[in-house]
Amino acid sequence: MIDPKTRVALVGATGLVGREMLDGLADLCVAPGQLSLFASPRSEGEVADYRGEELEVEKVSARSFAGVGLVLLAVPADAARELAPVAQAAGAWVVDVSPAFRRAGGVPLVLPAVNAARLDAPFTGRIVACPGAATAALVTALEPWRARFGLDEVSLTALWGASGRGKRGVAELEQQTASLLSGREPEPGHFPHRLAFNLVPQVGELEGEWTEEENSWRAEAGRLWGATAAPELSGTAVQVPTFFGCCLAVSAKLSRPATQEALQEALRTAPGVKLLDSPAEKIYPMPMLCTADPNVHVGRVRLSPGKADRASMFIAVDNAGRGASLNALDIAGRLARPGG
Ligand SMILES: NC(=O)c1ccc[n+]([C@@H]2O[C@H](COP(=O)([O-])OP(=O)(O)OC[C@H]3O[C@@H](n4cnc5c(N)ncnc54)[C@H](OP(=O)(O)O)[C@@H]3O)[C@@H](O)[C@H]2O)c1
What we know:
- By secondary structure, the chain is an alpha/beta fold.
- The protein has 2 domains: 136 residues, Rossmann fold, CATH 3.40.50; 186 residues, Dihydrodipicolinate Reductase, domain 2, CATH 3.30.360.10.
- Helices cover 31% and strands 24% of the residues.
- Strands 3-4-2-1-5-6-7 form a 7-stranded mixed β-sheet, sandwiched between helices. The chain has a 6-stranded mixed β-sheet with strand order 11-8-12-15-14-13.
- A hairpin with a 6-residue loop joins strand 14 and strand 15.
- It is globular.
- The structure holds NADP nicotinamide-adenine-dinucleotide phosphate.
- NADP nicotinamide-adenine-dinucleotide phosphate binds next to helix 1, helix 2, helix 5 and helix 9.
């Protein structure tokens, strides 16, 4: 719950993550009169339904945060870099889901299921960053194995649906699919190549040999677990022609041997994790099952033949929901709790 006296601003309310947050704010009991919605000038005047009332979306400006106690930023990183310091200077708590501050030393990076205590330790400023959706799912699913068996090394392939690029990514995949089915070759826009009926092994800009997305897993997992506790981590991010959901095929070298049953049991009892693991009955994680589910889905848990310290699993997460908005709202509820 958020303190009823706190005024809340949601910036990016017309985006994929912003719309998920709007639904979630109702669960945190934020009254319509205490909530202001903002986006870019493109969306000025749009109307969103919230708890039975119509709220108008305003164009965000430097004056938008006067009297606001909590600002949720669900905007691209460049906009977040501009807006977060303004909101902070106005005295608001700022929770940012963009990559803007994920690697910024002075800004806490928080995944409540793993390091919520970071919010209780003193920090300068009022900005809190959330990890990317793939890192959040990966760390949530691996934490039970790390705690029981230790993790030396992790390698993964991340399969990102078009929604990872926001509402314009979804629209582009729709248009490309329709064009190809009508015999027309579409132009790529938000993706490096045509995505429809294709796979693109590049998510985000290249930073040397690795992409921004691939580097982010290492950097963010290191900040969430702490540099000494974090395993070696590397992998490839692939853009895939599905609309929603992000899936991760993960292999881990454990510090101590395990059995398949013990690996499954650790996941079955972990908070925020749903084990779907009966392959013989065709039960395993898939994007079509995780949409709108607040849990990280895990399955296909197995050991490499003859190796009790090599474990694999498959993960699926609702990237805009569990992967972004729910973590941000959990943080917001802790920062702006009644009497906090
Ligand atoms: N999609 C995911 O799976 C996911 C997961 C984790 C984190 N994130 C991060 O969450 C953020 C939002 O992603 P999204 O997928 O929701 O993107 P999106 O669907 O493209 O929505 C972006 C939102 O930001 C607004 N916006 C853009 N530029 C702005 C500006 N200069 N000033 C104010 N508002 C601006 C847009 O307004 P208009 O509608 O007016 O353009 C829209 O409301 C990004 O930083 C992304 O990296 C996304």
